[in-house]
TrEMBL record:
Family: Belongs to the Gfo/Idh/MocA family.
Taxonomic placement: Bacteria, Bacillati, Bacillota, Bacilli, Lactobacillales
Organism: Carnobacterium divergens DSM 20623
Any single GO CC term annotated in Swiss-Prot or TrEMBL for this entry: cytoplasm
Protein known as: Myo-inositol 2-dehydrogenase
Gene Ontology biological process terms in this record: NADPH regeneration
Coiled-coil intervals, chain numbering: none
Gene Ontology MF term list: nucleotide binding; oxidoreductase activity
Occurrences of domain GFO/IDH/MocA-like oxidoreductase (ranges): 133-259
Annotated ranges, domain Gfo/Idh/MocA-like oxidoreductase N-terminal: 4-121
PANTHER family, sorted: BINDING ROSSMANN FOLD OXIDOREDUCTASE, PUTATIVE (AFU_ORTHOLOGUE AFUA_2G10240)-RELATED (PTHR42840:SF3), NAD(P)-BINDING ROSSMANN-FOLD SUPERFAMILY PROTEIN-RELATED (PTHR42840)
């Protein structure tokens, strides 16, 4: 089978990871082009990854007849337009989350994607491709927990990444804590329960990092949600985790409960020393979800080769962003938001 020729846009914090995976870890594809507005990133792509063609203009890369698919890892405000342009030029598209920052733009993008059913579209909700989340999903589907009554999620970035985050948030619109960070948890809530969220009440507090105020970002946020059948969800999101990268999910059902990463352990090692009994902690998203990023890219390439669509789609992008934006609105207005009426 011919190799899928991929062009990537964005070679920042996450773009470099995807680019390396596509070049070195995924069979059946070849990273042939890269686009960025930062010259050093293009030099990296050529010298470290052997990319043949580089672009500073995304439109020009997408017009190239030598690429079959694009990987969009640019700042979130570019995703909708870049997805639409790639679709119009006959390319398969992988886009990082969130699919977009406004419902009107996302709806238009969903429509454009729907007009091109033979082109693969996949959204980067990589947690669905993590081994532990997949194991939990199988248990839920097998009915091991009974009916789910509550989902509790923590998604807290390490404070060690604050400087790089403030730079990222200052340079472009991230969408804010709920759209940028909680969107993964919101996707998991929908994925595990197969239900839509109907009402949210969200709150937040900035305490330790005044630099977050300057870029209009929230340090810690929380939301309580009611789903359409009264299933409940609680989420905590943040940028100030002192012990590392804390992503934890709990499902409570009528027959049992499960927790994924109840403590965000790095691996199976326990260190016993003068500090006591120490379980090293997962430090950042590239480390925690290293395999998941590879698995999702592999799935994207296989979907193209097997002419099928992935499980995670544009509608998931629309719904998750709708809920995340409702959290943002609720937090800003200090009011409960009824998503069905909003
Ligand atoms: N799945 C996850 O867990 C996860 C984690 C981190 C980031 N992300 C998402 O990935 C995206 C990128 O995040 P990041 O942290 O890598 O950002 P970043 O700021 O580190 O990198 C952004 C990249 O986009 C490029 N760029 C900016 N404007 C451009 C333009 N007009 N044309 C071409 N390239 C342009 C920059 O040169 C840079 O290479 C965001 O949408 C973010 O939400 C997802």
């Amino acid at each position: 089978m011919e190799k899928v020729r991929v062009g990537i846009v964005g070679l920042g914090r996450l773009g470099k990871i995807h680019a390396k995976n596509l070049s070195e870890a995924i069979q059946g594809c070849e990273l042939v082009a890269a686009c960025s507005v930062v010259p050093a990133e293009l030099t990296y792509a050529v010298e470290e990854l052997g990319v043949q063609e580089t672009f500073t203009d995304y439109q020009k890369m997408v017009e190239s007849p030598f690429i079959d698919a694009v990987f969009i890892v640019s700042p979130s405000g570019f995703h909708c337009e870049q997805i639409q342009v790639a679709m119009a030029h006959g390319k398969h598209v992988f886009s990082e989350k969130p699919i977009g920052l406004s419902i009107a733009d996302i709806q238009q993008t969903v429509n454009v994607i729907a007009e091109h059913p033979s082109q693969v579209f996949m959204l980067g909700f990589m947690r669905r491709y993590d081994e532990s989340y997949q194991y939990a999903k199988k248990l839920v589907e097998a009915g091991e927990l009974g009916e789910i009554t509550l989902v509790r999620c923590y998604g807290i970035d390490p404070s060690s990444g604050m400087e790089s985050f403030v730079k990222f948030a200052g340079a472009s619109d991230s969408g804010g804590l709920f759209v940028d960070m909680s969107i993964h948890d919101i996707d998991l809530i929908r994925w595990f329960t197969k239900k839509e969220v109907s009402k949210v009440w969200a709150i937040g507090k900035n305490a330790a990092y005044p630099e977050l105020d300057k870029v209009g970002e929230l340090e810690t946020g929380a939301a309580m949600m009611q789903l359409e059948d009264n299933t409940m969800a609680l989420l905590v999101a943040g940028r100030n985790c002192q012990h590392g990268y804390h992503v934890e999910t709990e499902l409570i059902g009528t027959k049992g409960m499960l927790r994924i990463a109840a403590a965000p352990e790095k691996n199976l090692v326990t260190v016993m020393n003068q500090e006591g009994v120490v379980r090293p902690c997962s430090q950042n998203f590239p480390e925690r979800f290293r395999e998941a990023f590879i698995n999702e890219a592999r799935e994207f390439i296989q979907c193209i080769q097997e002419k099928r669509q992935p499980e995670v789609n544009a509608f998931d992008g629309l719904q998750s962003t709708r809920i995340a934006l409702a959290c943002k609105k609720s937090c800003e207005t200090n009011q409960l938001v009824d998503i069905l009426k909003d």
